[in-house]
Amino acid sequence: MLSLFLPASCAQILVTCAYKSLCQQALLSGNDVVLQCDHLQAYWYFSSFQGEAPFLVSSLPNIKKLPGGSLQLNKPQPSQTGLYRCEDNNTALVVEYEIDFQDVTMLHITHKGLGQNPLQNQSLSLGRKEIIFTHWEPWQDCNRCGVPGERKRLGYCYIQESLENPVPCWLYLGDEKLWSSRLQPEMQVEACLVPCNHSKEIIQPFFTFDISKLGQSTSNMQLTCPLASIYR
């Protein structure tokens, strides 16, 4: 029998944007996310960058509108990269997001303690002197305290033209038929040692998943953590 003990709280990232504004964000596919829209009668529309007309997202099985108006995406895929527009019941804009769901299966992982290096900047041959680079997020908390542990940070693929603001790679490329091994997100890991701060510790309940029979037809098995998130 195999038992998995998992925290009961579900981790998902909340993306926010100012009222009537357009915000760009790069995220990783396969990890739950909520796009904020504070309007009880919100209508969400989606359009990719393949030239299709915007349509109500109620037709997508892994997307759900929350009671307060925000939009929850369960394990979004790279194909769901595009524009998410929230309107009120009078078709007036509340907020809109351009989201690049970068392929988590292409994640380039390095460990500083092993002398592994992240991806280097690279030029892109589209005629506008573009540079592909990794935009790094801050280091996340150490996963243990009082003993040696590890921490990670996520990096997203961005493209920048000379004198222009950088843009997440697949928002920039749109329907451009281009492939490069440099067009991938990153994760960097390093060792850490931090003291314990018991005043900030949170005790969470745990679920137990019991599996009494494991498949015998294959030699490989994949275990998933259904309540986990790469963002923490």
Automatic annotation (TrEMBL):
It is found in: Membrane. It is a single-pass type I membrane protein. The keyword Ribosomal protein does not apply. Keywords: Glycoprotein, Membrane, Signal, Transmembrane, Transmembrane helix. GO terms for cellular component: membrane. Residues 1-18 form the signal peptide. Its main location: membrane. Belongs to the FAM187 family. This is Protein FAM187B.
